Amino acid sequence: MSTQNGTYPLPADRDPRMRRLELLVSRLLFAGVVTSVALIVIGMVVTFAQHRDYLDSSAVLDSAVGPGATFPHEFNALWASARQLRGEAIVTIGLLVLMATPVLRVATSVLTFINQHDRTYALITAAVLCLLLLSLVLGRVE
Known about the structure:
two-stranded antiparallel ribbon
């Protein structure tokens, strides 16, 4: 933590290292949200361009998004569908980017706190990151 006159710690809003961290995190969150929204919108446009009948028939649309609809459950299948420019795959990637954004934010914070030699916050943030990653692994649906 930076000090003012060597004795009193600076408030968080005046500490240049904390300010840099806040800016980095805000840029990361902004980029993640903008990227995910762009992918979701592009995927929706592509989906409706490829399947014009979705616009005319709610039954056809329900078969694509309702119970029993098939979605790629593995990354290889998702990337293969995305390479074929399937709109559903692009939307799914957008949703994955949206879900990964806060995880990347926490990982960035861990690295920043380690770089700043702030052990307490590095350990707390690393614990949060471990819990997030554990929830992803345990929450996996077959």
